[in-house]
Structures are given as C-alpha cells and as structure tokens.
C-alpha cells in the first residue's frame, strides 16, 4: 500500500546510520505515495536519494523541500551490464562521495539496447556529442546557471496534470529545466504540447536553460518502432519550437547523457547547473 511505502521512505531518511537511499528500479505509481509522506521528516533529514524514472516523483517532491537527489538506481544503472561503464562509475562516485559532479563531458559511446541477463551484450554506438540551441533573444554572454528541476518527461507531465506537487512559479525563476524520455517512446508532438501547456501556465518562461537527455528509441515491448535519428530530430524540433515562443531568452543542450540511455550521469535535481554554449560545457555544482 502507498502509505506503507511512504513510511519506509521516512524511516530510511530519519535513520542517522543511513547516509543514502538508492531505489532498486522504477515503476509507474510512485505518485500515489507522495500524499502519505511527512514533508517535515524529509526536510529535517535531507538524506541523499538516488533514483530516476518513476522515482522522479519523489525527487520532485524532495526538490520542493530543498533536498538534492541524483538520477541513478540499482537497475539499470548498476546491474544491466556485466560491468559498470567507466563513464557512469566516474560520475556516480562523485554523486555518492563528493559534494558535486563538476564538469560533465559527453560520453564517448552510448546505447539504448534492451539487455537480457541471459542474452548477448548490448551494442554500443559512437557518441556524436551534444547539440546546442541559443534562443533568439539571447544577447551577450549566453552562459546560464540555475537550479535543476524536471526529470523523466512522463513524470513531469503527471505533476503538471495533478498540480499538487508543483513548486511555486517564483521558485523556478532562472532555473534549468531537465527532460528525458523513457522506454514508453512518447510522441515528439506530445512533448511539445506539454511544453506549450507549461508556457500557457507561465512556467516555461521562468527557465533560463534546458537540458534534454538523449531519447531512448528502442523497446521490444513497445507498440511502435522509431528511428533514433528521426526521433531525436523530432524531439529537438518540438522543444525548440516551444522555447522560441515562450522562452526565447533561454539556451538548451540536447543529447545530454542522463536518463534512460547508457551510460548516464546521475543528474542532480535541486543541484546547480551551468550551461555554456560557447565552450559547449556543462557543470553541476
């Protein structure tokens, strides 16, 4: 039951011997847990939390309480391949044992392959780097810095629909929006419609920067197939169209290594990100 899961979270956060809590995997109903949580317990015991996908529900809840959380979990981050990818290991060690990730460069390779524990190793592809967008109203130095809010597109859209756990719009002023799409393979048009809704609510204009994770494009159990290059281009077009209308002052980076493709950095929701299009660098401090 959701209330029992909430109690388990509270006990883990309140236990002084527990330095961090890592989710095993994702799901599709953590939203039901949030209303049973005691916000004061989590605020007073800001234990580091690690998870993403459905766990972004809790991470967005923690964001409102000033608690930084990281986008990594047992599966798939640590358990899907015979060895942890060195790129993931390097950034995860920083998230576990240091205060910040620092500069995060693009991974040299990536995969969105569907790993079976008794199957063949996943196929890795060369990473062609990030793609940057600078809004038409940006003048002078395009570097932006702000607190990171967002996560998995599906979870962000749920929070927009329920409205119960959205932050005060003032708290999003100057923030960095992070979005990545999961194995559900949402249509690029729907991503654009969600951003349009954020624009009409007066939210999208608050953000100075946007981080878009490389979209996952393969799921053998999905109802449709997508071509990765076509899908990436469609999502980029959908996002930039809404930014141009509602946040023309913003800058955006596409193809960032976080979310449902591998390897990935443990994106720190609530942490501070710096985006510099001139040097094509991203930092998390």
TrEMBL record:
<dbReference type="InterPro" id="IPR029062">
    <property type="entry name" value="Class_I_gatase-like"/>
</dbReference>
<dbReference type="InterPro" id="IPR027461">
    <property type="entry name" value="Carboxypeptidase_A_C_sf"/>
</dbReference>
<dbReference type="GO" id="GO:0016787">
    <property type="term" value="F:hydrolase activity"/>
</dbReference>
<dbReference type="Pfam" id="PF17676">
    <property type="entry name" value="Peptidase_S66C"/>
</dbReference>
<protein>
    <submittedName>
        <fullName>S66 peptidase family protein</fullName>
        <ecNumber>3.4.-.-</ecNumber>
    </submittedName>
</protein>
<dbReference type="InterPro" id="IPR040449">
    <property type="entry name" value="Peptidase_S66_N"/>
</dbReference>
<comment type="similarity">
    <text>Belongs to the peptidase S66 family.</text>
</comment>
<dbReference type="InterPro" id="IPR003507">
    <property type="entry name" value="S66_fam"/>
</dbReference>
<dbReference type="InterPro" id="IPR040921">
    <property type="entry name" value="Peptidase_S66C"/>
</dbReference>
<dbReference type="InterPro" id="IPR027478">
    <property type="entry name" value="LdcA_N"/>
</dbReference>
<keyword id="KW-0378">Hydrolase</keyword>
<feature type="domain" description="LD-carboxypeptidase N-terminal">
    <location>
        <begin position="2"/>
        <end position="70"/>
    </location>
</feature>
<feature type="domain" description="LD-carboxypeptidase C-terminal">
    <location>
        <begin position="145"/>
        <end position="275"/>
    </location>
</feature>
<dbReference type="Pfam" id="PF02016">
    <property type="entry name" value="Peptidase_S66"/>
</dbReference>
């Amino acid at each position: 039951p959701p209330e029992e899961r909430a109690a388990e979270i509270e006990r883990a956060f309140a236990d002084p011997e527990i330095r961090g809590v890592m989710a095993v995997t994702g799901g599709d109903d953590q939203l039901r847990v949030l209303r049973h949580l005691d916000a004061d317990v989590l605020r007073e015991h800001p234990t580091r939390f690690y998870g993403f996908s459905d766990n972004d529900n809790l991470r967005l809840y923690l964001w409102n309480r000033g608690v930084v959380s990281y986008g990594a979990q047992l599966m798939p981050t640590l358990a899907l391949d015979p060895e942890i990818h060195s790129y993931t290991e390097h950034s995860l060690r920083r998230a576990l044992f240091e205060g910040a990730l620092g500069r995060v460069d693009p991974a040299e390779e990536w995969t969105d392959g569907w790993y079976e524990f008794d199957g063949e190793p996943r196929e890795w592809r060369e990473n062609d780097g990030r793609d940057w967008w600078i809004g038409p109203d940006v003048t002078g130095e395009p570097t932006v810095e702000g607190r990171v809010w967002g996560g998995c597109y599906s979870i962000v859209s749920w929070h927009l629909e329920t409205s119960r756990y959205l932050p005060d719009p003032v708290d999003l002023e100057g923030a960095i929006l992070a979005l990545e799409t999961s194995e559900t393979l949402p249509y690029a048009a729907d991503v654009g419609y969600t951003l349009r809704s954020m624009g009409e609510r007066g939210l999208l204009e608050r953000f100075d920067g946007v981080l878009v994770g490389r979209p996952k494009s393969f799921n053998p159990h999905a109802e449709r197939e997508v071509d990765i290059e076509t899908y990436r281009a469609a999502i980029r077009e959908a996002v930039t169209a809404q930014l141009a209308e509602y946040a023309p002052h913003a800058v955006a980076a596409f193809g960032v290594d976080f979310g449902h493709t591998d390897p990935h950095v443990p994106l720190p929701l609530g942490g501070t990100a710096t985006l510099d299009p001139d040097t094509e660098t991203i930092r998390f401090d």
